[in-house]
Each structure stands twice: as C-alpha cells, then as structure tokens.
UniProtKB/TrEMBL annotation, chains A, B:
SUPFAM superfamilies: Bet v1-like. InterPro entries: ASHA1/2-like_C (IPR013538), START-like_dom_sf (IPR023393). Residues 25-157 form the Activator of Hsp90 ATPase homologue 1/2-like C-terminal domain. This is SRPBCC family protein. It comes from Sinomonas cellulolyticus. Pfam families: AHSA1 (PF08327). Belongs to the AHA1 family.
Length: 162, 162
C-alpha cells in the first residue's frame, strides 16, 4: 500500500519564484524517464479531467516540446517550451509557456535525488518574468493541477507503467 | 556623425531582474538580424578584447546555440542556451548559461520597436533564478560587457556591415 505523498509548495511574497518539493516511491531514474519519455509524460501531466496529446517532445539539451491538453468539455489548452539542459537522471531545465496567455514564459529547474528504500525527491524551482506572472499562475490553479498530476504519476509508478 | 548611445540599466534591489533599454541608429529589422545571424552576432557580442566563435546558432523558436569567446590572453569563455521564441523582427526569448558557472541560467526577453528616423529601441528583460545570481552577474561586469558589445554593434550598423 502506498501512503499519500505531500507536495510542499513555497511562494514567497514579492518574489517571482515557486518552489516545489515532492517525494516519489520510485528511484530518480524512473521519475526522470516519466518526465522525458513523451508516451509516459502524456499519461500523468496535469489534472485528471484532461487528456494530453504530445505533438513534439525532444527531451534533450537544446530540444523543444509542445503538448495539447483536451478537457472533458472539449476545451483545448496548448503549452510549449525549450529544453535548456537535460541531464539524466537528476536535472531538467526548461522553459514553459501557456499559449492561452502568450508572452509569459517561465524557467523551470527540476532536480531529482535518490533517497533510501528506492524512493526519490523532486525539487522544482520555477522562475517567472515578474511577480505578477507568478501570482497569476498560482491564482489560475497551478498548484492543484500539479498536485493532481503528481498523484497520477504515483499511480503510473505503482502500476509499473513508468 | 553618430551620437553616442546611452544604455539604461535597471536592477531593483531584492528582485532577480535586470532591465536594459538601448536605442540604435537602425531599424528593428537590422538589429534583429544582427542578433540572429551567427556571422553578424560574432562580430559584436561582448567586449572588444574577445573574439567570438559561434559553434551552433539555430536562431528559431525551439533552436539552440553555443558560442566561445577567446580573450587577448587566450582565455576561453563558453556560453550556451535555447531559443524559446524568435519572432522577426521584434521579439527574442532565450535562455543563457555561462559554462564557467554551470547550473546558473537566465531567461532573457528582448523586444525591438521601430522609432522615427530609421531608429529603433531594444528592451531586454533578464530574469535570474535567484537574486544572488542576478547580483553576481552584475558584479562580474555584465553591464560593461554589454555596453561595449552594443558600441561594437553601433559600429557594425554604421559601416553597413549589418
């Protein structure tokens, strides 16, 4: 049986950062692969009510990506960005833009470290171009969507699907 | 005769941003091209005492770049990043990392707007992953190097070389 994992989110007032810490019941290498293999990524990213189609996902340093999420109601949300650095299994640095709000880009650094008992810790530092952009992203439900995605990833890891 | 241009740099205490405003005696399209054509870019980027070799420069949305600067004394400094968005002639969003201090990445948004009399204004908003990173970049002489680069670009534009 798997205990529910806690996602710790820090967003200090007046700074354009969001920091996230989340543990997984799997080694760093498997969580890295779930972030970089487009077929796995599509199975867990974002809230459950969306299905994800990956259009481009060249997860290497200097590559780029685009994916589209379609809701139960047919609404479509597209996202794209560039991979600045992908170092298996412990570091991913990439840009992120929601095409529904073009021109607002964030820079996300994700680090993975192995823990005892086959577990790992994911640490994400997101940097926004302004404090307003950061606050708008939080107000739009960034944290809930991320949490739900990580719960889906827990399930995928537990089932051996990733 | 060309008047000396002023580079206005703003770096508010306690925030991880550097904002730069600079005008050029050339239309936005030519300044955009001087940023995106690797042969032109190599002729002006950085201080005069360095010569630049562009190793990779795929200046389109989703592309990446790497260039090396060699000083009079033979010292070499390498830089790389990804192009998140390149929209000719007025918007360039890219990541930047100095390989001498790996793991510290900035996200730079440059915007160009045409002004009367065939001039243009370049506005750059650089976002760092921490206030410390921003302050270290300023302390390392970012502003002087940028200024000198823009003076070289002035010369290149005046000579018709770009």
């Amino acid at each position: 049986m798997t205990a529910t994992q806690t996602t710790r989110v820090t967003a200090e007032p007046g700074l354009p950062f969001v920091d996230v810490v989340r543990e997984f019941n799997a080694p760093a290498a498997r969580v890295y692969r779930a972030h970089t293999d487009p077929e796995l990524f599509a199975q867990w990213i974002g809230p459950r009510r969306y299905s994800t189609t990956v259009e481009r996902y060249d997860a290497r340093s200097g590559g780029s990506y685009r994916f589209v999420q379609t809701g139960d109601d047919g609404a479509r949300y597209a996202f794209h960005g560039s991979f600045h650095e992908m170092t298996e299994p412990n570091r991913m640095v990439q840009t992120f833009e929601f095409e529904g709000d073009p021109g607002h880009v964030s820079l996300d650094t994700a680090e993975l470290e192995d823990l005892p008992d086959g577990r790992c810790r994911l640490t994400v530092h997101s940097t926004f171009q302004s404090v307003q952009d950061r606050d708008a992203m939080l107000a739009a439900g960034m944290t809930d969507g991320m949490n739900e995605g990580y719960e889906r990833l827990d399930g995928l890891l537990a089932s051996g699907g990733a």
